[in-house]
Amino acid sequence: MKKIIIVLLLISSLLWGTQVTRVKWKSGEKFSSYLRSKHISLSVLKTLDELEEQVVGEIRGGQIFYELKDDKGTLLQALIPISSTMQIKLSKDAKSDKYRFSIVPIKFKDEKYFANVDISKNPWSDISKNTHNDKLTSQIKKALKNNISRLQKGDNISFLYTQKTLVGYLHGDPIVHVIKITKGDKEQFVYVDDDGLGHKEPFETISYMTDSPRTAIFRQTSYKPSSSGTFSMPVRNPRITSPFSYGRYHPVLRIYRPHFGTDFGVKRGTPIMSIGNGIVTHVGWLGGYGKAVKIQHSNGYMSIYGHLSGFRTTVGDVAREGDVIGYSGNTGTSTGPHLHLGVYLSNSPIDPMSVLGEESSVVDTLIDKVSGTISGTQVAQTKKIPIFNAEKYRDMLKSHISNKTPSYDWKKHESQRAQDQLDENFQ
Fold it and tell me: Is 127 in the same domain as 185?
């Protein structure tokens, strides 16, 4: 118990007299320039590994991030989102005054909110005025788009929605769950599905075609390229064990770090093939990737093949798509035999799966049992799909209305939200 009290006191003293600001990254500014502007020693850059250096190089002008400063204006911490779930954390050590770089999960707050708006002029301006959450209007418009009564002066609209926040600030679009429209003595509930579309009933009715009894399914295998199909797979019968990510918890290092590539689970000694035509630029040890091969392709693409056990190419070779360039292994920072494939475009990492052709896929073809010709006999069917938690959200909305809960005003509660979420994000 003593330890817990001491930790809480330390956190409280650290955050006392501090202020959080929401900042935009300057266009063209490098991470080193940002450090200098905050009077931070560039020695922090020496602690970054190759992947972390790539991450800071990906910060673009206009990126929203958050700074925590003391009452003298000294930067205590900076949180810079690098994806929808991960962020760079730059923090000042209270004892040594040195700064530490790390990649950590973003700690969103995800809560439900209520609004009740009397339409006095224009529904969209009235919603914005009452909530100070401008993104709500576009979501409400979308939900009321299909065959829903239009709002006009004298009507009332109330709704329940979920909104993410980060350090007290709005983050992303709100998700509207249910809406109630009141026109005089007439009431109408609108239930919103996962796509943001409104329905008059707590379910979605879909139409589909089903085959007649005299048809059967014949499964025919054919090659189906990806949307781009720029490159081919590096292994036969690929099995993905870890996808591309800006923040994967590393099983060996036990820290969050980017995973700029796709891992394929393969046995040791599996032939590894070049994903496309190119020039081999590296054959040998490559840090945490262990034994690795690099190939420079046309149009600014480059591929890396990591954790190999052996090579079947040398620097300067012309690699053709499908050529065996090495064999899978367990070298470098690895927990078991696998292939790490990294793909870069203009020196920036991209998801390999966005440019790889897919493995052979199954295409369903309807074949008539008797004659062997394609059957055209189909029957139209409808099905009711319940909207997730529709009744639950409706009851929650009714409860707010009955209790005369005021509309949540995002501007009014801004400072309180920031204070409430301060300890959760800056520690």
Answer: yes
